[in-house]
Amino acid sequence: MLLLVLFSASVATARPLHVIQERGVLSLCAHANALPFASKNADPPGFQIEIARALARELGVALEVEWVTTGYQFRSVDCDIVLDTIGVAEAQAERRLLLSRPYQRSGVGLALPPRRADVTTFDNLVGHRVAVQVGSLAAMLLGRRGVRTVPFGFEEEMLDAVIGGRVEAAAVSPASAEYWNAIHRETPLRFVNAYESEPELSWDLTVGLRRADGALRDAIDRAIERLGTEGTIGAIYARYGIGYRPPRSR
Asked: Which residues are CB-contacts of 229 (< 8 A; sequence separation ≥ 6)?
């Protein structure tokens, strides 16, 4: 999520659908070490890689991954799409991204120790220590409300801090919290979909099309619709212990 904030599309010659078909390759920007989202070396490789492979198959081309770890690399690397782009056109306008139809609902919720059944909203944690990603929207909004935010670089570190008792909760994506529970069955966390009552912290996820034409966006939209209807997207998420949440807009 942090890298999506850092990502900014550079001005480049457009790569429309017919060029991708002629090349036989659709290229994806993805983080090299960020499970459950993506990983260069892990098997399975992350749901972003699996979804992108499915999209490429629908287009009749191969998938090529441009591995990145920093915001600078995202700005300079030569790729066509980036997954899990927040589906707010105004937020992506300066990055010159076209947005596909959404394929998943997400946002920022709360990961808590299992004993904290009393917490159901962010406001329940005013005055308490909550892990947030440094520079994130959640950090700004919760800080304004009087939550004692503790900045971290990665969501996995934030969840570990909850388990270790260094913070009382972590403001994280449902994907990170559910994947944590899938691979740390001995130390599960309680996750609260607090974003459902927070419009600024809830959104649909889309494919960000970096240098696309309308034909490519239409092709990606059709592919998402087919993959969603036949259950492929939900099955991919399930392999990582993550629930499929239908987007609000279609």
From this structure: none
Do residues 148 and 211 lie in contact, with contact meaning Cβ atoms separated by under 8 Å? no
Q: How far apart are CA 246 and CA 223, in angstroms?
A: 16
Judge contact between 190 and 112, C-beta under 8 A: yes
Query: Which amino acid type is present at position 78?
Result: D
Locate the domains of the chain by residue range.
2-105+204-238, 109-197
Specify the DSSP class assigned to residue 109: E
Q: What is the CATH number of domain 109-197?
A: 3.40.190.10
CATH 3.90.550.10 fits 2-105+204-238, yes or no: no
pLDDT tens per residue across span 46-72: 999 999 999 999 999 999 999 988 766
Predicted confidence (pLDDT) per residue in 109-146, tens digit: 999 999 999 999 999 999 999 999 999 999 999 999 99
Tokens coding 41: 């070396």
Q: With a cut of 50, which residues of the chain have pLDDT below it? A: 1-12
Distance CA 214, CA 201 (A): 29
| Angle at CA of residue 240, ends 235 and 246, nearest 5° | 50
The structure's pTM equals: 0.90
Residue whose C-alpha is closest to residue 25's, from 68, 54, 59, 48: 59
